[in-house]
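To the wet lab folks,

You asked to see what we're planning to order before we commit. Fair enough. Below is the target structure as tokens, and below that is the sequence we designed to fit it. If anything looks off to you, flag it before the synthesis order goes out.
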């Protein structure tokens, strides 16, 4: 039982391991694709927010430029116009951290409503923590017709250095650099929230995949368990059927031996006894010569001895042990032809090399059973036995010119096909096989046995 158990364990592993491998591969693919999609989604969202922010900055700067452009139409001293322009820009705040800044061409801060301590200071050479010359970059962007610059600046509402996106343009006719900006920490928080939600979705998906894997393994285990129980029940049923068949075969063989002993040998021995008793009576009384009775008794005794030899030969053919399978098959064909009138031709082409005893006995019994079936059912007039060795196998072919039969019909009928089942089981026990081909006018049984198979090794 250990080999079938190991085989079932291997089959279970061969079922579960590919399943787990597929689920793992799917999980990895889903994980990688989800991470890639999350990165793409984050990039798209960031790009969209930046595009929206740039549009807002450009709009704010345009509003500021429009707000101070009318001053150029006033007939006032230059210095007053500049003061009014700075006052207007300083008052134009939006949101918690939105304001406008103005720098002179040399980098001197003119307007900074949220950090008024910077007004009047020259910040031309000032750099942020990343080393960006902020005022120089903004001024260059403004002189180029307006542009965007990303840098770090202290956020008024938190007093912490934060990434900022600024937009700057020139204010004519004074050559000022005017601009505004949006802080990007809010955008970063949005992106972080998107990443967290994406990671949570990925974890949930992987959890569902793990649950599917566990359920699949449990389902395979349950199916295997149910199949195992079904197979065990079927095996037990087959074992009981086989045991019953063996018992039935034994009883049939005993009944056959009993009939042959009673109807044949027993009757011959009784007749011999009568002949010898009659001879003894003639000797005792001297009434007549006993020679005729003795001759008849000896003749009947020879017949009884021949019958005993025949029965013994059916039980275990001595010719098979003494001369081997080829000679036993030839003798079997000769005896069968003599007793039944069905002409049997034996063609043996395996040479003189000795054969394994179990293989020789199995093939001899197959031939014996096959000839018995021909006698009982085929209505054949001729039969052929062919034995050959092909590619490490013994091939026994038994054919006849009888009426044929349908194997599926005999397989469905529990009272028929016992001989075929016995032959097939005998061969399968030694790792061989039996092929049956039957049509009206020809039936062929082909039995094959591997020569290198150990006795008792079941075929797979």
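Sequence we intend to order:
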């Amino acid at each position: 039982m250990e080999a079938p158990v190991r085989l079932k364990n291997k089959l279970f592993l061969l079922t579960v391991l590919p399943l787990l491998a597929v689920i793992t591969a799917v999980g990895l693919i889903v994980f990688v694709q989800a991470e890639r999609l999350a990165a793409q989604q984050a990039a798209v969202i960031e790009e969209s927010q930046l595009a929206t922010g740039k549009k807002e900055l450009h709009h704010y700067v345009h509003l500021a430029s429009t707000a101070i452009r009318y001053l150029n139409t006033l007939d006032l001293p230059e210095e007053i116009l500049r003061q009014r322009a700075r006052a207007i820009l300083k008052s134009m705040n939006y949101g918690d951290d939105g304001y406008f800044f103005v720098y002179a061409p040399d980098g001197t801060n003119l307007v900074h409503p949220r950090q008024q301590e910077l007004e009047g200071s020259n910040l031309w050479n000032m750099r942020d923590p990343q080393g960006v010359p902020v005022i120089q970059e903004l001024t260059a962007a403004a002189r180029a017709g307006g542009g965007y610059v990303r840098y770090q600046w202290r956020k008024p509402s938190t007093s912490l250095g934060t990434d900022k996106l600024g937009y700057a343009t020139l204010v004519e006719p004074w050559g000022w650099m005017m601009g505004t900006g949006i802080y990007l920490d809010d955008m970063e928080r949005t992106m972080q929230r998107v990443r967290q939600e994406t990671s949570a979705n990925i974890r949930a998906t992987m959890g569902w995949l793990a649950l599917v894997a566990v359920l699949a393994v449990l389902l395979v285990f349950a199916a295997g368990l149910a199949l195992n129980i079904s197979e065990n029940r079927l095996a037990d049923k087959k074992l009981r059927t086989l045991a019953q068949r063996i018992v039935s075969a034994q009883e049939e063989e005993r009944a056959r031996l009993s009939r042959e002993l009673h109807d044949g040998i027993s009757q011959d021995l009784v007749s011999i006894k009568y002949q010898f008793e009659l001879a003894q009576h003639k000797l005792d009384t001297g009434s007549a010569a006993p020679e005729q009775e003795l001759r008849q008794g000896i003749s009947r005794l020879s017949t009884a001895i021949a019958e005993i030899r025949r029965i013994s030969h059916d039980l275990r053919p001595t010719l098979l042990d003494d001369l081997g399978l080829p000679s036993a098959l030839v003798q079997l064909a000769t005896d069968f032809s003599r007793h039944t009138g069905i002409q049997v031709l034996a063609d043996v082409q395996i040479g003189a090399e000795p054969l394994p005893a179990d293989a020789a006995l199995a093939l001899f019994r197959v031939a014996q059973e096959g000839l018995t079936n021909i006698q009982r059912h085929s209505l054949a007039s001729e039969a052929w036995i062919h034995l050959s060795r092909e590619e490490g196998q013994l091939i026994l072919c038994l054919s006849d010119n009888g009426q044929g039969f349908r194997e599926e019909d005999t397989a469905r009928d529990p009272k028929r096909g016992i001989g075929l089942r016995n032959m097939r089981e005998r061969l399968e026990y030694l790792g061989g096989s039996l092929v049956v081909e039957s049509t009206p006018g020809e039936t062929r049984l082909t039995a094959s046995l591997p020569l290198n198979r150990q006795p008792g090794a079941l075929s797979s």
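Structural context that might help your review: The chain has three domains: 26-183, 221-315, 318-450. The radius of gyration is 54 Å.

Thanks,
Computational group
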